[in-house]
Amino acid sequence: MALFFLVAYLAMACPLMALDVGQSTRCVAIPRHMKVCKDAGYSEMRLPNFLGHSNVDLEVVPRSEDWRPLLQTGCHPEAQAFLCSLIAPVCLDTFIQPCRSLCLAVKHSCAPVLACQGHQWPEALDCDRFPVEEDTCIAPFTKFSHFGKDLPKPACQNCPSVEQGPAMKTVLDAFCHHDFAVAAKIHHRRLPLGGPQFEIEGRVEFIRQGPLLPYDTQHVLQQWLLINLQCAKVLVQPGRSQLFVLTGFVESDGTLALTHLFPWHKKDAGIAVATRKWKHHRC
User: Fold this and answer.
1) CA spacing 20 to 30 A to 236: which of 95, 139, 153, 190?
2) Angle, nearest 10°, between helix axes 168-177 and 269-277?
């Protein structure tokens, strides 16, 4: 996430609205290795872009990668459209800026993710800099307030407690007192190489399903790791994987909150016995 702020500082050095949109510009193909915007819905971009970048290989592509960690959190379904409209403006007769409404929608959902990392929304992306009239700019395509409203969603939270080698009773009590309990293996990439720093490996095994959805849980847990990056970093060493039993709640607003994490090692008889007894356990 620190890479994201390198872009922000560069943008402050070349403010968005200070760009002379009447200056000489050119259209170039969006390169295939520019993965952040390669599927943005158009194939050519106009340079210099709104961040003042002109060189594709030395500026545009490397700086576009700096935004990848934020996009991987899934903080807003139109975050890519907003960011790519600045990094790789669509090649039309004139520059088309994002609308203020699009900026505000993305900021509303993504600024809390940045705050979770201890940072503020970059001043260079002040939404007041963008036009209000939606017929002259890129407007939101969806109403995010209704997007996935019935699905549990991850959010920034205080780090859950991690208990090594718990007793069987401790694990069973955690199963009883929480909405859900799952077993999942967390992998910490040594080098991201363009991928997410943390991944859920293999299938998520449900111990107590509660309000979780089988087809969505793995994705939600992985997004939780990417949003709560500082919490995730203390769970698994880089280049390693670790199996955990995770328990938590789904709040009334649909927010998923993890409360207890139990690293599950082969020697942990308490967890193994608790998972076997759970089917017949009475809380």
Assistant:
1) 153
2) 50
